[in-house]
């Protein structure tokens, strides 16, 4: 029976849906980092307690990756992705109604499940829909949705927060639920899933058993990748306000600026990976981040700090732009919805204390050396791990 490949229009819809899902998911997460002071005052708790809610969110992401990853390998990519989008949007909406800290904490824990489920399912759908020759640049495009979500959160902090208040920052986070309708009407099921699907959940789990050594390696890789991204992003707005006395308005503008750099970097290094290979492109991106640390952490004016942050995120998200293609290519065909997402989210499980560690280190070494030293060590270790790994650039997912 001939293979029914997606049309160009269907490919575009599948990749767009995955991109939008990750963008809106990231927006819902990053809203909180612009609200540390507001939420601390509202709920009568320390700022460290609010920072801890981001850690709680990150800790629950592997649960979502396991649940929705298994569902996507068993029942297809579309329906689990739709359910996940509706779930995390509803929880985000409810965060805006939280009457106290405990309720808010529970909701952020639940949100972590939804956030954990989106990336693996969306990445498998997007990469299985992309032509192999364009997988690098589309990988960068997909991952840039994370930075776009951050950018949109910064825009909301610049416009929504001063006029409507912090609760509206979460209420507009319910809008992504509409994406489920788009997926339902426009996005076809993955042909690669049809070809490689297994009949039971047990069979899917059994198929991953032979992959366990490389799976552990991917977890180490993703843990260090999470140290890289969350260590350069989550506390940076607070760092700018605390150390340099930059106003919240100016901080949101700087955040918008450096996320433009992140988007450019993801797409640029994603495309570079098609020519240089996945690992070499990632190492080149990390080299850029290492070089600009003095400007990013020790910049002596807001302009220098903004330029340093722009280049830092260009490198950080440049390395991340290769990840969707790289992880889906090295994962087994029958568990492509599970393995990339679960490795990704187990990485965040082990890296979840990043914010709390950096926040604590500032009291001993100062905020500047806390973030700079943490990232120097991370980049050196991550480069070593990447070079020790393997890749399967251009692997075909569909048998003709």
Helix and strand element order:
HHHHHHHHHHHHHHHHHHH
Outline:
globular
What is the CATH T-level topology? Growth Hormone, Chain: A
Biggest sheet details = none
- Counted up, domains total 1
Number of strands: 0
Question: Would you spell out the secondary-structure blueprint of this structure?
Answer:
Elements: H1 8-30, H2 36-43, H3 47-75, H4 78-95, H5 101-129, H6 135-164, H7 166-171, H8 179-186, H9 191-196, H10 201-209, H11 212-233, H12 236-244, H13 248-276, H14 278-291, H15 293-298, H16 302-330, H17 339-351, H18 354-365, H19 367-388
Explain what this protein looks like in three dimensions.
The chain has one domain: MFS general substrate transporter like domains (Growth Hormone, Chain: A, Up-down Bundle), CATH 1.20.1250. The protein is globular and about 60 Å long. Helix 1 packs antiparallel against helix 8 (179-186) and helix 11 runs antiparallel to helix 19 (367-388). The protein has helices at 8-30, 36-43, 47-75, 78-95, 101-129, 135-164, 166-171, 179-186, 191-196, 201-209, 212-233, 236-244, 248-276, 278-291, 293-298, 302-330, 339-351, 354-365, 367-388. It has 400 residues and is mostly helical. 80% of the residues lie in helices and 0% in strands. The protein contains 19 helices and no strands.
What tags apply to this protein structure?
single chain, 400 residues, mainly alpha, Growth Hormone, Chain: A
């Amino acid at each position: 029976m001939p293979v029914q490949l997606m049309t160009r229009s269907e490919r575009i819809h599948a990749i767009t849906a995955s991109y939008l899902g990750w963008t809106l998911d990231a927006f819902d997460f990053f809203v909180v980092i612009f609200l540390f002071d507001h939420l601390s005052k509202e709920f009568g708790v320390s700022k460290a307690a609010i920072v801890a809610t981001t850690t709680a969110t990150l800790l629950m992401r592997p649960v979502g990756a396991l649940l929705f990853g298994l569902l996507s390998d068993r029942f297809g990519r579309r329906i689990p992705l739709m359910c996940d989008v509706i779930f995390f949007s509803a929880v985000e909406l409810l965060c805006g109604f939280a009457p106290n800290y405990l309720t808010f904490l529970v909701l952020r824990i639940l949100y972590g499940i939804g956030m954990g489920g989106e990336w693996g399912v969306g990445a498998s759908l997007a990469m299985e829909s992309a032509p192999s020759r364009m997988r690098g640049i589309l990988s960068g495009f997909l991952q840039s949705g994370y930075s776009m979500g951050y950018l949109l959160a910064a825009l909301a902090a610049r416009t929504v927060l001063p006029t409507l208040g912090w609760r509206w920052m979460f209420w507009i986070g319910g809008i992504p639920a509409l994406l489920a309708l788009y997926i339902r009407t426009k996005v076809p099921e993955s042909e690669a899933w049809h070809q490689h699907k297994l009949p039971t959940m047990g069979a899917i789990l059994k198929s991953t058993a032979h992959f366990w050594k490389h799976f552990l390696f991917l977890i180490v890789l993703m843990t260090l990748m999470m140290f890289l991204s969350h260590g350069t992003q989550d506390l940076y707005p607070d760092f700018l306000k605390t150390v340099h006395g930059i106003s919240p308005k100016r901080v949101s503008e700087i955040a918008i600026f450096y996320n433009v750099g992140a988007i450019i970097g993801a797409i640029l290094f994603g495309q570079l990976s098609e020519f240089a290979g996945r690992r070499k492109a990632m190492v080149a991106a990390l080299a850029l981040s290492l070089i600009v640390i003095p400007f990013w952490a020790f910049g002596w004016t807001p302009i220098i700090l903004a330029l340093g942050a722009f280049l830092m995120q260009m490198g950080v998200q440049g390395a991340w732009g290769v990840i969707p293609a790289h992880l889906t290519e090295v994962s087994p065909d029958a568990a492509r919805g599970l393995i990339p997402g679960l490795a990704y989210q187990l990485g965040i499980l082990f890296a979840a204390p990043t914010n709390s560690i950096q926040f604590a280190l500032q009291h001993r070494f100062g905020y500047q050396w806390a973030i700079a030293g943490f990232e120097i060590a991370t980049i050196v270790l991550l480069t070593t791990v990447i070079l020790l790994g393997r890749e399967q650039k251009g692997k075909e997912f569909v048998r003709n």
